[in-house]
Amino acid sequence: MFNKIMKRGQKKPSKPETVEAPMPAAPASNVTVNHASRQPTASSQTQTLPVTVPQNPGVVEVLPMLKDVPLTERHGLFIRKVQICCVFFDFSDTMKSAREKEIKRQNLTELVDLVQSGSCKMNEIMQEELVKMISVNIFRCLPPAPHESSDTKGGDPEEDEPFADPAWPHLQLVYELLLRYVVSSDMETRVAKRYLDHTFVLKMLDLFDSEDMREREYLKTILHRIYGRFMVHRPFIRNAINNVFYRFVFETERYNGVGELLEILGSIINGFALPMKEEHKLFLVRALVPLHKPTSVATYHQQLTYCVTQFVEKDYRLADTVIRGLLKCWPVTNCGKEVLFLGELEEILEFTQSLEFKRCMVPLFRQIGRSLNSPHFQVAERALFWWNNEHIVGLIAENRHVILPIIFDALEKNIHSHWNQAINGLSSNVRRMFLEMDSELFEDCQREYEEMEARAGEREEQRVSAWKRLEQVAAQV
């Protein structure tokens, strides 16, 4: 879906037919559309438009097509069509105002084609009215999630049917219009940044919480394009996304668009120049690493892993910071989440150099030892699969004198007492690899393990005998 939208935004416009907008001469329209993103500029207050809009805002009149009127009248007709598209309808009832809805749909379709083709060069007033109309249509209160409604209370959000906004056929045209406007070669960023301002961006980020996946896909594409074209907005967009993540992790743990925002950030991180700014490193530590905490991490873990590994790939010195951060967020009872973490750590270790590995290998393999002994076979299996990775095996072999004593006990317990035969076999294979790496070290670890088991047996015998003596004393009393 993302690639399709991106390609549609790159279609070559047809040969433009430039239209010079006439100087306004008639009184201003008495219909005001409240713009959600900015206050009207001085120029828009002083200039007036030769447009007559119906007194009743609920009336949608049929207007001629822009291509059927003289060039001198297209400017006014464009404004009039845009203002008619500001009328709201109840899409929950398909039969209500069906004719008016169809007129609005036709006007929106015509505006999309017009902006895409570039056949009518828009001046500042036209652009302002266009963004006003888009704001009025898309900036709205989102409906509650299906699992939050009273009739489905107590249900599982993951089992709900995907939400489909009944107004989407019209909303899609509005989003398509906004996308065409943002990617248009005729759009001047100097002018457009007055309308696509910081408030507009913040309201777009609120819409990422939409339950409709189709809407989030459009928002992702449009915000990414805005980031690419408006350099002045880039720091603000990054900070605004940071704030969304902070609120999600530390307050609500409820936000639908985390995955889409991470996809945008993955592309942004890929373009970071080296040496990396301190601001970007702080973003990794304060936003991306804490995103591993929420229980819903599985819904966006793939995008999160890509962003984190991009940082480590660009600067291998960040590996120690990332690995220690993941260990702090390590799940205790969520086995599915633990499997995801083990897979992510393997990808991070692919880009980890020997020096950084040595800094974090002790706490890392203490956790791996606990995962090896997990009664959930998928967790133990995923940890044992690390020894199929040549780069990780090389790092382990280089530091075997530290790592083998940490996990030897876990391997022996798996071989002798794990309930799953596949885990028994994989643990035996890893044990054999260490034996082939360094037989002398292996024998030392085995001797220590046997001595430890013997001491544990002695302690167990002492404990049993002590309880027997206490029972005998209690019986005599």
TrEMBL record:
Stretches with biased composition (Polar residues): 29-52
Primary localisation category: cytoplasm
Keywords: Coiled coil, Cytoplasm
Stored InterPro entries: ARM-like, ARM-type_fold, PP2A_B56
Region (Disordered): 1-52
Chain coiled-coil ranges: 435-462
Intracellular or extracellular location(s): Cytoplasm
Entries under Gene3D superfamilies matching the protein: Leucine-rich Repeat Variant (1.25.10.10)
Gene Ontology molecular function, alphabetical: protein phosphatase regulator activity
Any one GO CC term of the record: cytoplasm
Biased composition (Basic residues): 1-13
Organism superkingdom: Eukaryota
Functional note: The B regulatory subunit might modulate substrate selectivity and catalytic activity, and also might direct the localization of the catalytic enzyme to a particular subcellular compartment.
Similarity comment: Belongs to the phosphatase 2A regulatory subunit B56 family.
Protein name, entry field: Serine/threonine protein phosphatase 2A regulatory subunit
Organism: Castilleja foliolosa
